Amino acid sequence: MVTLPIFINGRFYGKKITGTERFAREIVAALDALLCERNSDANVTILAPQGTVKPDGVSRIGFANVGCLHGHAWEQWDLARAARHGVLLNFCNSGPVFHPRQLVVVHDAAVYRIPGNYGRLYGLFHRALGRFLAQRAMLTSVSNFSRKELAAIWGVEESAVSILPNGHEHILRHRPEPEILGRLGLRKRPYFFFVGSPVPNKNLNRAIAAFTELRRPDTAFVIVGATAGKVFAGNRFEATENVMMTGRLTDGEIVALYRNAAALVFPSLYEGFGIPPLEAMALGCPVVASRIPPVVEVCGDAALYFNPLDTADMAARMKEIIASPELRAELKRKGDLRTRLFLWRDSAGKLLEEIEKNTRFKFKPENPHPESGAGSIWRAERRRSRGDCR
After folding, report:
1. Residues near 239 by Cβ (< 8 Å), separated by ≥ 6?
2. Which residues, 6 or more positions from 370, have their beta carbon under 8 angstroms from its beta carbon?
3. Which distant-in-sequence residues (6+ apart) come within 8 Å of 68 by Cβ?
4. Using an 8 Å Cβ cutoff, are 269 and 254 in contact?
5. Do residues 330 and 189 both lie within one domain?
6. Where in the sequence is the domain holding 333, given as residue range(s)?
7. Mean pLDDT over all residues of the chain?
8. For position 230, what pLDDT does the model report?
9. Are 159 and 21 within one domain?
10. Mean pLDDT of 312-337
11. Of 322, 326, 339, 228, the residue nearest 276 (C-alpha)
């Protein structure tokens, strides 16, 4: 018996960073650091489409551009072929359906539970893909709530879906860029903060209505984020005098807004995990959030909760937190303790444990000929990299 090489589906390195891509980048970086620390001899390589640049800060894990295709076609054909003799790790909800030894992280069940958030073809494809992978892959999600949701939808035992939570350390690496406060006129003005894609399940209409009920002309509501039009069904909001919609900002600008906000408002109706509350707690920003299972799972007693369907309740919690410095200080203290439960390093360690304990990830070579196995893959890929894509 020999240990298989491990390949990572690196398609996400060519995409804009949303919560899913953030997870993938951070788990790979944490895995790289852990392999270095343990002086591991594991053979781990990121495989990515042509034109994708090797990520900075990854030293122990190898990198290779493979194939000639792009998008899902690259994933289903080029990636499957290049990784066929190893274990394949997929961190962004998808993977090649016929790969025999793979782990797939599916972050939530939103494509099944709230299909209206997605374009028709995107939704059809990903619902079908998820069901195929559920029958063939080792399954992982990011929270106990999402595990229960996905297990119920796919018709598998909950124990068949492991959990790799998000971490918070990434947000601490960015230096704040406080110039954004002056640009938005927030230096001497209290404000609530929201960060994310303004899609229907984020419940921004009610949050804006609740903020309006405060009748506080001295207070602003700052909404940061952009909608991915090719993925999400359209949703538009109108800015008012005190409701600011900034679009995308830099990480440093977002850090500055977290650090100076009266509170993060997280009004979601549906989530798989909820990274913004975790980021807020890590940066000392109080959290006012929906009382829904995944958010409570992340925040515990370190948030002030409201009924996301009740704008009056939402407004009351906003008023309560802005009026009480003592409450804000208490939530900051509890938030600091809570974030210690969610570390990228810990999730990388759990990932290694899942790989090592799963006997499907060891095999007996089917053909000992020197042209078989991983060596022949790399020879084929070198030929393709020189322009021979047959």
Report:
1. 245
2. none
3. 50, 78, 384, 389
4. no
5. yes
6. 177-339
7. 88
8. 42
9. yes
10. 97
11. 339
